[in-house]
Amino acid sequence: MRIPAHSVCTAIRDDIVAGVHERGSRLTEEVLARRYGVSRVPVREALRTLEAEGFVVTRRHAGACVAEPTEQEAADLLEMRTLLEPLGAARAAQRRTEAHLKVLRGLVRLGQERARRGSNEDLRSLGGWFHETLAQASGSTSLTSVLTQLRHKIAWMYTVEAPVSPVESWTEHGAIVDAVARGDAERARALTTLHAERATGAHRLRFSPAGERVRTSQHAVNMSGPRL
């Protein structure tokens, strides 16, 4: 059964973010096809997509390579997120559905519960799901797509320190959902701006300004099914 190119793209992207494919390393179609158990055709398509997203660059005499973003490019991503997440929250206040609210409220309850228990690993996953759902509630496919790409690239370039007060952080999440539920776009925007600015301070580059990557843990990829 032919594995779709988007599944191969997701797997390669996840490996880049996890550090399996290091910054600046070559990405040959033949090697990638063997690694993921696919033909070269979906790999070629995936590399084109990843190049458009900024994870891959094509170099003369070397072919496709993992991109090596600069410190300024990394900082720009955080600034873009600080600008776009509040826009998404404001749109969510105007366009959210009851299904979106149900999921957001459920995530806030779980987040507050895990925060009280000190379950930091769970909180990272829940935080990602919260912001992904908030973006989807904006009703804008384009905005959701951009924010998803930003989250992937920020996770690739930065490590994130646990908040000093996880309970307070999830209280902020709850306040954002309350504003979205009331349809108060300006308050949703303001609260999300404050939350994003605070979160930015917890990000630490994975690589030095000179471009030397800091080693991080690597995770094997499970190709048993698409991870979208």
From TrEMBL:
InterPro entries: GntR_C, TF_FadR/GntR_C, Tscrpt_reg_HTH_GntR, WH-like_DNA-bd_sf, WH_DNA-bd_sf. Residues 2-69 form the HTH gntR-type domain. One of its GO terms (molecular function) is DNA-binding transcription factor activity. CDD domains: WHTH_GntR. Transmembrane segments: none annotated. It comes from the Bacteria. Keywords: DNA-binding, Transcription, Transcription regulation. The keyword Disulfide bond does not apply. PANTHER family: GLUCONATE OPERON TRANSCRIPTIONAL REPRESSOR, TRANSCRIPTIONAL REGULATOR, GNTR FAMILY. This is GntR family transcriptional regulator. It comes from Streptomyces argyrophylli.
